[in-house]
Each structure stands twice: as C-alpha cells, then as structure tokens.
Amino acid sequence: MVNINRRYTSWNLPFPRRGILFLVFALIACGGIFAQQLTVAVSRFDIIGEISKEDADGVTDLFMSELVTNGAVRVVDRNSFDRILQEMKFQASDWADKNKVAQLGKALNADSIIRGMVMTLGNKTVISSTILDINTAQILAASSTSMNAMNEVFTKLPVLVKEMSTNLQQLKTRNANLTVAISPFDIRSGLSADEANAIIEMFIAELAADGTVKVVDRNSFDKIVQEMRFQVSDWSDDNKVAQLGRALNANSIVRGTMMSFAGQIVITATIMDINTAQQLLSSTLRMETVGEVFDKLPTFVYDMTHPVYEVGQKGPAGGLIFYDKGIYSDGWRYLEAAPADIGYYDTVGHPRDGNWATIYEIVWNQRVADVPGTKVEVGTGKQNTAIIVKFGGTAASYCVRYDFGGFKDWFLPSIDELALMYQNLYQRGLGNFVKDRSYWSSSFDQVKSSYSQTSRYDYAYAMFLSFSGNGSKGESGSVTSGLKVRAIRQF
User: Fold this and answer.
1) Are 76 and 41 in contact (CB under 8 A)?
2) 257: enclosing H helix or E strand
3) Are residues 340 and 462 in the same domain?
4) What confidence tens digit (pLDDT) does each residue in 295-350 have?
5) Fewer CB near the terminus (10 Å): N or C of the chain?
6) What angle do CA 290, 294, 300 make, to 5 degrees?
7) Pick from 418, 409, 390, 395: which is nearest to 342 by CA?
C-alpha cells in the first residue's frame, strides 16, 4: 500500500502577465517563424488500389484547406498549380526528373512540393503525404494515417497535417548522417502489387518522419535506375552500387523483401552502405495478416534506424535509460533520465539556496473543473509538463528549458515515471540521486480551499516521491519544500 501524505501550507499569487510585452514578443516570434516558412505546391494525390478519383480529389482539397489553416507553410494557389502544369505539359512520369521538378517549382515560385497517396490496404484506407525539396529530391517531412471508412478523413486529416508540420519544424534540430534511397522491395509471394506499394509508401513516410535518416524521393530512384540500366544482378557489383548512390546523392540504400513464409507475412529491410556494400542496419517484421502493418510498422522502422538499449545503459543524451516499453509507439520507446539534478526555484523564479523547487500553481478565480488535469501514468509526463508550464509552474518550466547532451526535449516526469526511476536506477545505485530526499513529479491533484468553501482559490497539490524507505508518494503545496528535480526525455 502506498502512503499518501498531504502538507497544506500558505500560497502566493503569481504576478500578472504584462499584456503589451507579451503581444510584442508574440509578434516577434510569429515573424521569425513566418520568415522560415516553406512555400509549397500541392500535387493531386495519387491512387493505389480501389480508390475513386473523386475521393482522391476530395482528399487533396481537404488536405490543402487544412494545410492553409495550420499555417506552418505557405501554400500555392490550386488554380495556379494546375495552369502551370498544363503550360509546361508536365506529365506524371516527369516527377522522376529532378530538372523538370525544379523547373516546375521555380515556375510556381515554390521551394517544395507536396505529393500524396490515397491507398487501400487490407480493409483500411491509407493516406500518406511527403514534402519534397525540389532541388535535392529529398523528403523534408512526411506523415501517414489510416482510416476504417472515408468519412473519418475529417478527423484524421488535421492530425496528419499537424504531424507533418511538426516534423518539418523539427528538421533543423536533426543531425541525420545517412541519406538513403529506397529500392523497390522484392515481392516473392503473399502480397499483391498494390498491397506491396502501399506498404512501401507507408514505410517511406515513417522513415522520413522519424528524422534519423534523410530520404531520397522514390520517383528519383526509379528514374535513375532506368537511366543507368541498373539490373537486379548489379546489386552484387560494388562499383555499380556506388555509382547508383552517387547519382542519387545518397550514401546508403534501403533494400527489402516481402514474402509469405511459414504461414506468416514477412518483411525485411536493410540499409546498405553504397561504398563498402556492408549492411549497416536491418529489421524484420512478421505478421499473421497484412492488417497488422498499421500497428507494427512504426516499431519495424524504429528498430532498423535506432540502437537497442537496456535499462541502466547510457542514452543518446548521456543520461541513463530507466524504461523500455518494448515497442515504438506514439513517437517513443525509451525513457532517459538526465545524469544529474537541475536547478531549484520558487514560483516566481527566485533560487532557494540551490535546494528548492515547486511545480504547484494557484489558479485565480477558477473552478477545479475548468482547469485541465494532469495524469500519473507512464508516458504522461511530457503532456503534464506542457499543462503545468501554461499555468506558470517553475520546475516544469526549467525542465523544458534544460539543454543537455545536444537535446532540448526534456520534461518533468509523472509520478509513475518517477517511481520507475526510483526502482530501476536509484535502487541499483545509479543516477547520482540524493539519498533520503524527495523528488517532484509533474502529476498533481486539484483541491478546493480547506479553510473556506467560498474561497476564490483552487489549489494544485504537486505529487512527489520520497527516495527513502519504500519510495512512498506524497503531495505538497509548499513553496519551501526541500524537494529535488530530475528531468527526463522520451525517444
């Protein structure tokens, strides 16, 4: 049984925000973002499988509308795009010609083009989209989604556009060393050509969205393979493979197979160095039915492009891995704790002798039901932190600002994430935690004032974990509680 202790203490109101100053900073920030925007032209989405042209055109139009609403990129007018396509006599086959694509982009005054697919796979409809750099033929950002019925497009498309925009915004923070070209997967048995093509499109979108590698547009690959008269037998010729890579401006190539084997559908993919012909990374996906690809493909791609970690090992940022959920989903598989505690501050940002921190907040003239709540489960700390930061929570804010190991995606752990740190690191003598002290979490309860039923204050009592005894949980609203803070990240 976990012990829950409350400590009710005095509260201080946060200072009001300066509206004019906030507006100035907002305008500056928006101006900076606007200056970095891409100008994109949106091509009509292509079709794979049993999709009508009317449905594909409808998806294209809705996608463009959502893209404009999202505001992450500037969008070229649909009529201008169609008119210039006709004037240039641009054909579907021309997408594989870098020079023609670049000319199209210049004519449209665009620096990138969005291409999309509407596909059927199993009993689902799949939509994928990629933002393609017109000069390098590299995919800048990508996203895909699946639907049980076409009417789900109204809820799924906004999410797809948001994910692609997020991937695009994170592009500058990525340090992808590999530039890969995707070879058409060999289909041996068990899948139709449409199913295989749909899976490859989803694979490319997932690989590009992951950001670990740069991805060359598939059409460029097909075009150059034809021009070089590259044959299947040429894969064993190191010189020819190297020539192909240089022509694609890539340093590696992904090859794959799809087959029916031992009663299962098996997909393999390998990243091969074009100069040494060595296999750099690989992954295998096994499925009972093709419909399992929607749940299993993200982990398949993640395992191919990321090293495998064990709890207690050093992570990418130089911290310690303290949790592995076993699969890649919702954008992460591992949780990594920073190697040391970070600074300690009170609610208005004043240091407390290097030993103080708080995440609680008073919400002025609000009912508990009006304030978004946090959660306690593993995987919720990042969202908890975002909620707390909006209400001015100081420890959460400093976790968000934390910059260590080349990463800036740190956050304050939920209470259950904190418990895993206690179990998997502290109890094993790892992590440099302070003995017999407590640590703040990003989980908190919201309770009404205990001294007055008519009070205008709703209190948020932060949950903490004691790193002593059996790791008991507690709650506090104290400004001067001597609690520590340890940031974590997920990847």
Assistant:
1) yes
2) strand 252-261
3) yes
4) 999 989 988 888 889 999 999 999 999 999 988 888 899 999 999 998 554 434 44
5) N
6) 95
7) 395
Residue 110 lies in a domain: yes
Residue 65 lies in a domain: yes
**Tokens encoding 113:** 């083009």
**Domain extent for 73:** 38-173
**For the segment 217-265, what is each residue's pLDDT rounded down to a tens digit?**
888 888 888 889 998 888 888 888 889 988 888 999 999 999 998 889 9
Let me know whether 393 and 256 are in one domain. no
CA 88, distance to chain mean position in Å, is 37
Residue 59's H or E segment, with its range, is helix 53-70
Helix (H) or strand (E) holding 269: strand 264-273
User: Looking at the 3D structure of the chain, how many domains does it have?
Assistant: 3
Residues making up the chain, counted from first to last: 491
Residues 86 and 160 in one domain: yes
pTM, 2 dp: 0.68
Give the number of C-alpha atoms closer than 13 A to the C-alpha of residue 242, restricted to the C-beta side: 7
- 300 in Cβ contact with 287 (< 8 Å): no
Given a contact cutoff of 8 angstroms between Cβ atoms, the answer to whether 179 and 252 are in contact is: yes
d(CA 218, CA 198): 13
Q: How far is CA 97 from CA 108, 130, 224, in A?
A: 17, 17, 9
